[in-house]
Amino acid sequence: MKRDEIICHCMGVTRGEIEDAIKAKKLTTVEEVGEATSAGTGCGGCQNNIQDILKEING
Ligand code: FES
User: What is the pTM of this model?
Assistant: First the structure.
């Protein structure tokens, strides 16, 4: 998995930043990821991808 892939283009947030925040802060929702990283708080178009990353990490 490419950690430097930009997941949220509005806020310029990478997959690695999102993964690290989910693991470090035990995040479970797209809203929590938004609060922690700003990802998903612009157009909202990346929220499905954030959900997929949450699923990958949290099962
Ligand atoms: S691409 Fe993430 S909020 Fe627009």
Answer: 0.95
